Amino acid sequence: MDGKAKGIPQKALGEYRLKLYFIGPTLLVLIVMNIFPLIWSLGLSFTNYSSLVSKGISFVGFANYSRILSDPFIWKYFQTTARFVIIAVGIEFLLGFGLALLLKEQFRGWGLITTLILIPMMLSPVVVGLFWTFIMDANFGLLNFIIGLLGFKKVLWLTNPHIALYSVAIVDIWMWTPFVMLISLTGLLAIPKSLYEAADIDMASWWFKFRRITLPLVSPLLVLAVLFRVIDAFKMFDLVFIMTGGGPGDVTETVSMSLYRLAFNKFKTGESCAMAYIILILIIALSNLLIRWINRTKAA
What we know:
By secondary structure, the chain is mainly α. It has a single domain (about 65-300), classed as Orthogonal Bundle (MetI-like fold). Helices cover about 75% and strands about 0% of the residues. It is built from twelve helices and no strands. It starts with a helix and ends with a helix. About 25% of the residues are buried.
């Protein structure tokens, strides 16, 4: 009996060591690839470090943060990013949820149509940016060719300062509306049909069923979809870089594009790290607000 009692801790210790052997390498990779660069870049944000100039690093405190937050151009880029996020995510939400409502009832060819709708979100953003650049080309693009056949003047999709940001938003909407649709459709298909059947027995209108059954039950997933898209759209870089490069002028200059220029064109590494953390704090704040909204929705 004593031998068995003594053997239990040894067995538990052996299992613990076995788990550690499996989990240890993963934790090490996580620390080396994610946590260490995060801490290192945070330290650099308080210095005057430049990856181009080989001089001693000196501590400057919050000077980098102060310089960025007092720069009027940076605030302009934040406004551009906010406008892009509101336009793109707002339309993606409406179109995605609308498509999900249409696809809620399965029909012949449902699987094929759903798969075709999901194709844009499966493509690389760089590939999407490149072929939409060709489609929106002012002289040889497909869009202007069709517009010309209809008798209208050609549109400078990517070079008109009043249109360029909306053109990029159109591409983002085309690419990520299926993502919102997929999450919305998952929520709609999970709603028990018995609730709708009970409402039909009570002769409830479609608006009553939508307002009292569909919307409350699917709203947590809708807010989750918006959360993911807001985070991703706020960080959006690749489409702007490929399609407009931040131009014409700086009308499509997002904060991610500005961060890229600060780090790799001006080589102000310390300032770029500070700006990256300012963006991170804003994204965390936005995420917090949306997560609280999700929790409030669930509680209700």
